Amino acid sequence: MLAILVTSTAPHSGKSGIALALIHHLKERGMNVGYFKPFGARPVIINGITTDQDAAYVSTCCVPNLVPLEDVCPVVNTQAFVEETLATGPQDLSGRVLAAYERCSSGRDVMVIEGPDGLFQGRSAGIALRTLTTLLDARALVVHRPADYEVPDDVLTMADTLGDKFGTVLLNWVHEPEMPFVAHKVKPFLSQAGVPVAGILPYDPLLSSVSVAEIVAALGGEVLNSHDRLDRRVESFMVGAMEVEQAQRFFQHQANKAVITGGDRPDVQLAALETSTNALILTGSMEPSPIVVARASELGVPVISVDTDTLTAIEQLDSLIGHVRLHDSEKADRIRDELERAVDTDALLATFGVATD
């Protein structure tokens, strides 16, 4: 049984999406694929079981397991876990993780393990990245999101730390203007340093977008119109807190956006509606102008009223954009298609000993 541990150099690098794309690709090749996530950072309770949101989705919808859900993600970073660890000191949960992994991997050809973000996540539980690769006898597929004109020291450090447990790196979410720099500067640099690069995946705004329905759920807001358009995609947020003349120019710079502004600013709201806006978020629980709601309804733009102030709404939405939510078949298909287009999957899998004949 072979194991591919998908990790990343930093949070929000696309690790979960790459893991899911690999699972689908391996299944299409006729392999019996298992999934495991030793450390979950997004707690959720399902049928009384505390687990990780992504782990619950993958294990129930994509890789049905014959093991309990708690085995799929044996350690979850809940408030109780944090408080206990801080009170009693670092723990060694490696035994629990190994036992759960053995149950999840039984009878599988290949295991896709969704590992930690970076070298240190899970250290207080005794399951940091280096420990996991040895414990689970897995090599690492590192997902890295290049920063603008920076030397990828974090990739080099991860390769040095993991040694022979380092498999290859995927450079992910590269914006089109940065592609020449990454392809002709960063990739050769890593290759010369002995770090193999499996491929470069371009940035796709769909993958980091959220639906209007997800925004409503995050804010606990009230939808005032266009209830049938809550599936519209939002790729960015913009705050309307300026004079209307400035707002008109400002809003033209972003497409498929949600505009957050005070409920008492109909001038700014109307200016936003004359650009590519997919949702209006009105803060302060104020009654909106009928003219604004009528114009938004005409354009099919949902207007969302929230009780909070603008700053609080921004803070609540901050974690939405930039994190790929797996519970979306369109996104899952897009990631898999992009992986197969941009990467030599035969060579990638061969790195981990997976036969591709």
List the helices and strands and how they pair.
Elements: E1 2-8, H1 15-28, E2 33-36, E3 39-40, E4 43-46, E5 49-52, H2 53-62, H3 69-72, E6 75-76, H4 79-88, H5 94-105, E7 110-117, H6 129-135, E8 139-144, H7 153-162, E9 166-174, H8 179-192, E10 197-202, H9 205-208, E11 210-211, H10 212-219, E12 222-223, E13 233-234, E14 236-240, H11 244-251, E15 257-262, H12 266-273, E16 277-283, H13 290-299, E17 303-305, H14 310-317, H15 329-342, H16 345-351
Parallel strand pairs: 1-7, 1-8, 2-7, 3-6, 8-9, 9-10, 14-15, 15-16, 16-17
Antiparallel strand pairs: 4-5, 11-13, 12-17
Helix pairs in contact: 1-15, 11-12, 12-13
Count of domain modules: 2
Q: Whole-Å distance between the termini?
A: 17 Å
For this structure, the CATH topology of the largest domain is Rossmann fold
Q: What value does the average pLDDT take?
A: 92
Largest sheet: 6 strands, parallel
Helical segment tally? 16
- The geometry reads as globular
Q: According to CATH, what is the class of the largest domain?
A: Alpha Beta
| Strand order in the sheet with the most strands | 2-7-1-8-9-10
Q: What is the architecture of the largest domain at the second tier of CATH? A: 3-Layer(aba) Sandwich
Low-confidence parts? none
Strand content: 15-25%
The proportion of residues forming helix, as a percent range, comes to 40-55%
Q: Work out the number of β strands.
A: 17
Radius of gyration: 22 Å
Q: Structural class of the secondary structure composition?
A: alpha/beta
CATH superfamily label of the largest domain: P-loop containing nucleotide triphosphate hydrolases
